[in-house]
Amino acid sequence: MADVTYFVALPFGAGDDGPEPREAIECTSANAAIRSAERMARTEGHIGAVAFSRTGDPGSGEFSDAVVLRSFGEVPSDL
Predict the structure, then answer these.
(1) In principle, which of 36, 62, 64, 69 could form an S-S bond with 51, CB 3.0–4.6 Å?
(2) CA 33-79-49 angle, 5° bins
(3) Dihedral sign, CA of 24, 63, 66, 38?
(4) Within-domain flag for 48
(5) This protein's superkingdom (predicted)?
(6) For residue 78, pLDDT beyond 90
(7) Count of domains observed in the chain
(8) How far is the C-alpha of 68 from the C-alpha of 66, rounded, in Å?
(9) Does residue 79 belong to any structural domain of this protein?
C-alpha cells in the first residue's frame, strides 16, 4: 500500500501540569490544518493548538514522526 499523509489540528487546554491535548480533527490539507489550529487556539477553553502532519502506511501501521506545521498559543515544548 502507498504512503498516505494525514493533516491534523490538535487543540490544548489548561491542565494541572501545563497544556494537555483535547480532541484532534483530521483535515484535508496542510492549509486547512493550520487554519483549524488557529481557530481552535482562539476557542474558549483552549489555550493553544498545533497543526501537524504524519506520513505512513495505514496497512502496516508504520508512520514517520509528526511534522509540526505551525503552533498557536500555549502548547507543550516537547512536541
Answers:
(1) 69
(2) 40
(3) negative
(4) yes
(5) Bacteria
(6) no
(7) 1
(8) 6
(9) no
Q: What is the C-alpha separation between 66 and 8, in angstroms, rounded? A: 10
Tens of pLDDT, residue by residue over 25-74, are: 999 999 999 999 999 999 999 999 999 999 999 889 899 999 999 999 99
Give the span between the Cα atoms of 49 and 71, in whole angstroms.
Answer: 6
Residue 79: strand, helix, or coil: coil
pLDDT single digits (tens) 54-68:
999 988 989 999 999
Query: Can you read off the three cell numbers belonging to residue 66?
Result: 509528526
- pTM of the prediction? 0.90
Residue 78 lies in a domain: no
Q: In angstroms, how far apart are the furthest CA atoms of the chain?
A: 42
